[in-house]
UniProtKB/TrEMBL annotation:
PANTHER family: BETA-GLUCURONIDASE. This is Beta-glucuronidase. SUPFAM superfamilies: (Trans)glycosidases (SSF51445), beta-Galactosidase/glucuronidase domain (SSF49303), Galactose-binding domain-like (SSF49785). The lineage of its organism: Bacteria, Bacillati, Bacillota, Bacilli, Bacillales. Belongs to the glycosyl hydrolase 2 family. Pfam families: Glyco_hydro_2_C. InterPro entries: Beta-gal/glucu_dom_sf (IPR036156), Galactose-bd-like_sf (IPR008979), GH (IPR017853), Glyco_hydro_2 (IPR006101), Glyco_hydro_2_cat (IPR006103). Residues 262-566 form the Glycoside hydrolase family 2 catalytic domain. It comes from the Bacteria.
Amino acid sequence: MIRTFQQHRLRECQLLDGLWDFVFDNDNIGLSEEWHTNFPSNHDRVPVPACWNNELGKYDYEGVAWYRTWITVEDSSHLRLLFHAVMGHADVYWNGQHLGYHYGGFTPFDFVIPNVTAGVHELVVRTDSTLEHNTLPYHIVDWFHYGGIIRPVELQRLPDVWMDGMSITYDMTGDSSSDVQILLKLQSLSDTPAEVPVTIYRNNEIFYSDSAYLPAKGNIELVVKQNWTDLKRWETEDPVLYMIRAVVGKDDKTDRIGFRTVETRNKKILLNGKELYLQGVNRHEEHPDWGFSFPNKLMTKELDIILQMGCNTVRGSHYPQSEYWIDLLDEQGIIFWSEIPIWGAAFPAKETDDPLFVERAMTMMGEMIDRDLHHPSILFWSVHNEIDTRSEQAYELSIKMTELVKSKDQSRLVTYATMHPMTDICLGLFDVIGINYYGGWYFGHAEFKDMLEVFHERCKEYGAENTPVLMTEFGGAGVYGDSGWEPRLFSEDYQADLLGKSLKLFRADPKISGTYVWQFADTRAQLQSHLPHFRDRARSFNNKGLVNEYRKPKLAYRVVKGIYTNHNDPYDWGSTLS
């Protein structure tokens, strides 16, 4: 399943999972040789969805690759091809005709093909996972950059009138009442005008029934506004969710929402008017056997481990994560920080205002918000991580990105993570500030206290004295199984000791509203023997996980769990500091 619930009952949907024909294009000759109409006969076969780097003999490859599959259509139909995620560049061909191009990696895109005749049809996809100076992420990136069709490809059969989108927004007018707006985007593929019935349900009860008229080959936006009462709010302790189903003629779509408010006040984050203290981890959606093509079963296990640790939040590092995962968080009342893959520790300031990079960043941000607008667990849209926020280029990019987010969604908080807390010039631009600081690892001793004193004073200079602050990354590496009598670097003992002391210090600071430990699980690193980057990544992994890559707990997991679960008052730590 792509979601944890069924999105369509009337619309016929088919997953194109399975083995596809596959070939690398090492010399990038596929376009000139027209592989989209003459697919190489010496092809391999690989599973879809999957990352090719997890297959034998394909580990190191970054670049262009081609996929092909065959689709049998029994009767003439309108078809919609929905790609839930393809890494990097994607060109899609149907029977040799170019349907279009998408750039991204973690957000969906689609093509509608009207009046497809019965028979067998060829679908070819050219992908390119190459990282460059203007890609997201940058070509120097601190995680393994997999390639491939990493999430499902869906074939949908559309009626003449179909729903191209459903957007649900609301404004809470009281504790249990809300002004709700439902926007339906309707498209007609018919050569003649059409009038169709429209019915919208909330938890299987009809709240709207009417009809809509569409001109031939036309489209309309249908807006329904109502005030709803007797609502229950989505709370972390009681995450109440509402199913919204729209039926338009012979088409339908279901999505799910939760009602809540989020705001900031006096350096605190408030959910439904109540102060939050966030206890979380950073999570890469990655596994050495599956890469980014993450199985649903492992998501449920990960969430169980995270809940057992006492977390009430997860940061999606550093890209839009699967809808299934966010559905699980909605259901469990876990808060999510969502971001796009602008990872900038090695990203030069001069590249930040590259027009193509900015265009790609804005597009990916918009696609993430459009896809995930209805998830109540998402409280934060994060626009970038660790870019050079000491620079004017980063300042200008931050303005563009925050304006984009606010134009699409004003119901959530806009944030970012800085690795320059003592020199950052963007502190006054955001609703929430995240600090990434590796005291005790990259910076020798864990001198967080001095850093925070300087940082809090700088917030006043930039008008951010009341802006909530989260510790979004901190920690150190611990190689699973390396333990002893002393806390040596890279030992489980050192990692646990560092995290324990750091968490106690942060929780003693009333100006810190929460913590995200780096990171949940060990992840494969982008370490190549011929390049100088990330040479400190033992085993070719980022070993800062609280569990190892196979989700086995380290000593640090138990230390963090002890802190996250045994203390109701997050600030009651001062007397225990050493």
